[in-house]
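Slide 14.
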Amino acid sequence: MKVVLLQDVKGSGKKGELVNVSDGYARNFLLPRNLAKEANAQAMNELKNAADSKQYQLDQKIAQANASKAKLEEKTLVIHAKAGTNGKLFGSVTAKEISNEIKQRYGLTIDKRKISIVGEIKQYDTYDCEVKLHNGISAKIYVKVCE
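Slide 15: predicted structure.
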């Protein structure tokens, strides 16, 4: 019997999958516990609509990530910091500060964990950073630290 799983079932499949199980297992275990429903036309239509909705949301996220990449790619952010006489900063410039600067300048909310900095930013200079916007989509930016 073909059923659509409503929850994850160990040994059978994950939520939302169409699986073929024995008639007794479906009638005596899955259906009474509301773990699955019979794969009729309505259930198949709901399954297809759920898959289409998920794909649409993924496409929207990818389009938004590409738009953000176009805004950020190869841009230079200027961050002002205080330093001692030899040019060494008091503390360092962190991903949180870079995220705040991106939000102020471009209006994009980027999580600080999505910003990867090579090494530490502890002196006045220009540094390369990578901003991960989505799976496989990232933008390279430059961070210039000055007084």
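Speaker note: The chain has a mean pLDDT of 90.
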